[in-house]
Amino acid sequence: MTTSAEIHRGLAGVVVDTTEISTVIQETNSLTYRGYPVQDLAARYSFEEVAHLLWYGELPDARRLAEFRAAERALRPLDRTTAELLARLPETCHPMDVLRTAVSFFGAEDPTEGDGSPAAHHAKALNLLAKLPTVVAADQRRRRGLDPVAPDPGLGYAENFFHMCFGGVPDPDVVRCFEISLVLYAEHSFNASTFTARVVTSTLSDLYSAVTAAVGALKGPLHGGANEAVMHMLEEIGDPARAEEWLEEALAAKRKIMGFGHRVYRHGDSRVPIMQDALDRLVARAADPEVTRLATLHAALRRAVRARKGIHPNLDYPAGLAYHLMGFDTPVFTPVFVMSRVTGWTAHITEQLAHNALIRPLAAYAGPGQRPVPIAR
Ligand code: ACO
């Protein structure tokens, strides 16, 4: 080892910078965006208003919101080149690969890619916010053998996504549950994908490169990929009566139980109660035996994990099943997370640039000591 400094594997517990965007208040176990408790934002505000709050520091007034909404709606359509490029990607690839490629391509197309001014950043962030749902919806439809549905500028962000995915907008209760998930997913301080975006930005690279990298970080099942993995896990268990036995086998095989545990929350993810409430409403309105089976299994596994490991669910646990009940295909769950988290990522990219320091930690070397290279080969 070349240093005796304390090692923090996974940067656990390390504070690397300040942020004004969000924080988890450990004493009250609550998450705030720009000072506002996220559960209050989710209950009373639209996703567009929360996006504005994250980017500009304040909730918009009525005039500002109307301008913001009009700008977002105008940017939703994809140009033909992008649509054709994405339609050529193999259907065997994951929808997160499509999204990652799309973000990278938007950067290649944007003549202002390298402009790092706050105004240029806000324009690029809005462009991504507007276009990513169009990409995700078209990709889901393509995999179902359907033509894309054009965005509807008369619809809000959440409603329009349903419209582009399914050619119709569901009951307002369902849209509301979806919007709540978008608000809860929007921002979470220095999580792995946001930190990735900040690392890329710290080299003075461009916003699209930072977001492309963040999409890659979010894809993993220990992070955003967990909402999709939750659904696969529920399908694997199948019968609610098998939850405890399955859990024992999974733990014996040293598997991580998807949708449980969190690096920051020690007493439960503060976002879970409000998402669980939204999920319960979706279950109640479905009144379907198959939905009841899934909800019973979901609750049984939650109880079993709590009793056996003392671990709480994280946001991905209720969100995964909620997205299934809303009709989305399982591989689309993490792309939906991107549609929301792109707001947090881009807020952090702007903040990183405002007082940048290259992010470059040290490592304690654990390889062979210095030795002479062999003279003869
Ligand atoms: N399943 C089984 N065991 C777990 C789980 C889990 N989901 N989470 C934590 N543990 C165990 C660890 O193995 C460890 O046990 P040990 O001390 O016997 O080795 C102990 O609990 C403590 O783990 P932590 O220190 O809390 O783990 P860490 O902070 O490194 O990991 C993480 C956090 C990656 C989220 C982990 O809980 C996990 O893998 N969860 C499953 C994946 C998941 O749901 N990810 C979504 C995160 S939230 C989000 O992205 C929105």
Question: What's the CATH topology label of the largest domain?
Answer: Citrate Synthase, domain 1
For the record, what CATH class of the largest domain applies? Mainly Alpha
Helix count?
A: 16
By CATH, the architecture of the largest domain is named: Orthogonal Bundle
| Head-to-tail CA distance between termini | 29 Å
Spatial extent as radius of gyration: 22 Å
Kindly estimate the percentage of residues that lie in beta strands according to DSSP: under 5%
Structural class: mainly alpha
Biggest sheet, spatial arrangement of strands: 1-2-3
Count of strand segments: 3
Inertia-based shape = globular
According to CATH, the homologous superfamily of the largest domain is Citrate Synthase, domain 1
Query: SSE order in H/E notation?
Result: EEEHHHHHHHHHHHHHHHH
Give the topology, please.
Elements: E1 22-25, E2 30-33, E3 36-37, H1 38-44, H2 47-56, H3 62-74, H4 80-87, H5 95-109, H6 118-143, H7 157-166, H8 172-185, H9 192-202, H10 207-219, H11 226-237, H12 243-252, H13 272-286, H14 289-309, H15 316-326, H16 333-354
Antiparallel strand pairs: 1-2, 2-3
What does this structure look like?
The chain has 377 residues and is an all-alpha fold. The protein folds into 2 domains: 34-218 and 342-354, Citrate Synthase, domain 1; 226-325, Cytochrome p450-Terp, domain 2. 58% of the residues lie in helices and 3% in strands. It contains 16 helices and 3 strands. The protein has helices at 38-44, 47-56, 62-74, 80-87, 95-109, 118-143, 157-166, 172-185, 192-202, 207-219, 226-237, 243-252, 272-286, 289-309, 316-326, 333-354, and strands at residues 22-25, 30-33, 36-37. It has a 3-stranded antiparallel beta sheet. A hairpin with a 2-residue loop joins strand 2 and strand 3 (36-37). Helix 5 crosses helix 6 and helix 13 (272-286) runs parallel beside helix 15 (316-326). The longest helix is centred in the middle third of the chain and has 26 residues, at 118-143. It is globular and about 75 Å long. The protein starts with 21 loop residues before the first strand and ends in a 23-residue tail after the last helix. The mean pLDDT is 96. Residues 10, 222-224, 226, 256-263, 309, 311, 314-316 line the site of acetyl coenzyme *A (ACO).
